[in-house]
Each structure stands twice: as structure tokens, then as C-alpha cells.
Amino acid sequence: MRRYGSLIVFLGLVALAAAGGIWFRPDAWYAALAKPAWNPPSWLFSPVWTTLYVMIAIAGWRIWCASRAGDMRRLALALWFGQWIGNALWSWLFFGLHQPVWAMIDIAAMLVLVLAFIAVTWRFERVAAWLFVPYALWLAFAASLNGAIVLLNR
Questions:
Q1: CA within 13 Å, CB half, 135
Q2: What pLDDT shows up at residue 1?
Q3: pTM metric for this prediction
Q4: Structural domain boundaries of the chain?
Q5: I need a surface site. Which of 62, 103, 134, 145 has the fewest CB within 10 A?
Q6: How many CB atoms lie within 10 A of CB 95?
């Protein structure tokens, strides 16, 4: 039962990161920005992020519970927490501070951390690695969207 208690902790952590997306919502500033033609509809973001957040939590939990991984486990957890911090910061930077350039830097760093997490965990916890693949793909898409918004609004 204790093992599942740590899953609740990881779900809580990602819920905290998600709270930034709830707290700092698109506003009039965002509505006024020029966006690329391939910008998805607003309704798509909530179900995508909800699914990804559950996968992110499960991946972190699986690493937390992994045994016999030693230093690789510690590195994977550091990468997981690094991306978590970046994830929590992005909404604040983009929607809260209206700083899409800083948000672009943040999302690029998140993508590097997520790809590193996949590479590290691939060696000892493939399920966790696979759980981060859709996240990496979505971050790459979100980074390109963020970059397009930066370029279109110079």
C-alpha cells in the first residue's frame, strides 16, 4: 500500500504544475497575439495536458519505485524534477508575465530534460521512457508553436 501512496504524491506534484495552467489562463493579451494557421483549438489543450500529466506522474512514480538502478535512478529523478519545474514555470512565463521569449527558452530546456529522461530511463525502466515519448512529441509541437508566436509578434 505504501508503494501506491507514492503514486498519489507524484499525481499531486503534477497537479501542482498543472495549477499554473489553470491559474495563468489565456487572456486578452493572448487573444490579441498573431498565431500560426496550425494553432490548435483551445479546447484541445485540456484533454491533451490532462492525459500527459497522468503519464508524467506514472513515469516519475515508476522511477521512484525502481530498484537496482542506483545512480541512473537518481539521475532520472533529477531529470524528472527538472522538467517538472520547467513545466510549472512555463504558464507563468508565457501567460502570467507575457514573456513568450522566456517561455520559449523554458520549453526548449524542458524538451532537453525530457529527451534526457527518456534516454536515461530506457536502460532500466522502459515503461517510464515510453510514457515520456508522447510528452516529448507534444513539447516539440508546443515549442514550435511558442516559437512561431514569438516570430509572428516581434
A1: 30
A2: 52
A3: 0.93
A4: 2-26+50-152
A5: 134
A6: 20
